[in-house]
Write a structure and sequence with these properties.
about 180 residues, 4 helices, about 35% strand, globular, 8 strands, alpha+beta
Length: about 180
């Protein structure tokens, strides 16, 4: 398991899938804001299932270090080994939001991407009104590189999307905001 100050990222377990589907995917507004595709009903948890052969998308379950409760999902996706880049995505269950877990998740994904995988660039795309994700990214050193104006159709309206990037040499793994536990 990869650990941060308060959360850990571990392999997705089968019993995580229904919890993540119910808490994240079945929330139509949240899913519509987080996914570039339109929401549609899904009988199974296929969105959260794990394909160990997929080298471009690595899903993790986010758990609290104190007690091990499942609190969300995180992904390093779109991994491009030629360009040594990837994207970061995360979703926290409603009960886990507002506790600073997002900042910790981004920090652990940066460690994994830069140290374990040897990537050069990590990128985050999020709606410009997703202040929690913007804060989590910027606290970890991500820089806003641009805004894609009216690029996302969300629940009947076009919204702007921010693009943030972080390069390996810019990353500061011991940022003072973060408390670290040894892995």
């Amino acid at each position: 398991m990869l650990t941060g100050g308060r959360i850990g990222l571990r392999a997705r377990h089968e019993d995580d899938v229904p919890v993540l589907k119910d808490g994240l995917y079945d929330d139509v507004v949240n899913t519509s804001r987080a996914d570039g595709r339109p929401w549609r009903p899904m009988a199974s948890g296929s969105k959260f299932s794990v394909d160990d052969t997929d080298e471009q998308n690595l899903p993790f379950s986010v758990v609290e270090l104190d007690g091990g409760a499942l609190v969300g999902a995180a992904t390093l996706w779109g991994i491009d080994l030629h360009h040594r880049s990837a994207h970061i995505g995360l979703g926290l269950l409603p009960s886990a939001r507002g506790k600073g877990y997002g900042t910790d998740v981004v920090a652990v994904l940066c460690h994994y991407g830069f140290v374990v995988r040897g990537l050069w660039r990590l990128q985050i795309e999020t709606l410009t009104d997703n202040h929690a994700m913007l804060r989590a990214a910027e606290r970890n050193g991500f820089v806003r590189e641009g805004v894609l104006r009216s690029s996302s159709w969300v629940m009947g309206a076009f919204l702007d999307e921010a693009v943030l990037g972080l390069l390996a040499h810019e990353w500061k793994p011991d940022a003072p905001e973060l408390s670290r536990r040894p892995a």
